Amino acid sequence: QVQLVESGGGLVQPGESLRLSCAASGSIFNIYAVGWYRQVPGKQRELVARISNGGSTNYADSVKGRFTISRDNAKNTMYLQMNSLKPEDTAVYYCNYWARAAGDYDPKDYWGQGTQVTVSS
């Protein structure tokens, strides 16, 4: 199986920055696309950013130009650099790996435990 551990959330003021990290461990055969999602109470989880195995990225319109997703394949880790944070970015952020564990025939979704990001003055 694959385990994901997130870090980097916290409380910041509007305009400040945070960097989230998500490290994968376990019996990993291959990691394909990875991404960050966020969720606020009462709303569906939404895609923030995603990066393919080849490095292609896509972002939610609301974060384009402010957030940057990246991955370090050697470390099985991905990052979300969040700049110019706004109060509306407040949410629980979840990392997602589309990965194949050793011994599995097909890849599947794996999720981190979630990390709270709060943007408030």
Describe it.
With 121 residues, this protein is mainly beta. The chain has no helices and eleven strands. Strands 2, 4, 5, 6, 9, 10 and 11 form a seven-stranded mixed sheet that branches. A four-stranded antiparallel sheet has the order 1-3-8-7, with no helix packed on it. It starts with a strand and ends with a strand. The mean pLDDT is 95.
Summarize this structure briefly.
The protein has 121 residues and is an all-beta fold. It has strands at residues 2-7, 10-12, 18-26, 28-39, 46-51, 57-59, 67-72, 77-82, 91-101, 108-111, 115-119.
> What Rg, in angstroms, do the CA atoms define?
14 Å
Give the SSE string.
EEEEEEEEEEE
Number of helices: 0
How much of the sequence lies in strands comes to over 45%
- Shape by Cα distribution: elongated
Instruction: Report the strand count.
Output: 11
The CA-CA distance between the termini, in Å, is 41 Å
SSE blueprint:
Blueprint: E1 2-7, E2 10-12, E3 18-26, E4 28-39, E5 46-51, E6 57-59, E7 67-72, E8 77-82, E9 91-101, E10 108-111, E11 115-119
Parallel strand pairs: 2-11
Antiparallel strand pairs: 1-3, 3-8, 4-5, 4-9, 5-6, 7-8, 9-10, 9-11
What key attributes describe this structure?
121 residues; seven-stranded mixed sheet; 59% strand; elongated
